[in-house]
Amino acid sequence: MTLRPLGLAWLAAGLLIAPAARAATPIPYTEAVANSRTTAHMVLDKVAAESCLRGRLNRAMIKLSDSCAAQGERSELCRLADKVAATTPITPDLMVEASQRILQLTEPVAAQAGTR
Q: Is residue 85 within a helix (H) or strand (E), and if so which, with residue range?
């Protein structure tokens, strides 16, 4: 059996769509929050080029937004994730502001109690 050009196109389309379908499953909310904290620290510590950090922050916010939606979470952190994920372009100022806010919103409860 030989594949006709249309058959090859369908085969190629299936190969391109399959990995995307697996990536659509949101990560657990707690993992997404931890990932956003790690990324926020990276942005504030400037551990890489700005363009790299912009991409990392954008991916972290998309993952967090997806996890929030999957869990039905409607917190301020989730609203921030939605906002940053939908912003184009993400400016250096927004990167810093969002990172600082992420850390404030996700600070462990014990640490928050000690600062009051």
A: helix 76-86
pTM for the model stands at 0.74
Q: How far apart are CA 79 and CA 65, in angstroms?
A: 8
Give the pLDDT confidence of 22-39 residue by residue, as tens digits. 456 899 999 999 999 999
Burial of residue 95, with CB atoms counted within 10 A of its CB: 0-12 exposed, 13-18 middle, 19 or more buried: buried
| Beta-carbon count within 10 A of 103 CB | 15
Burial profile 22-52: b = 16 or more Cβ within 10 angstroms, e = fewer? eeeebeebeebbebbbebbebbeeeeeeeee
Amino acid at 80: L
Tell me the per-residue pLDDT of 5-15, one tens digit each, with 9 for 90 and over: 555 444 444 54
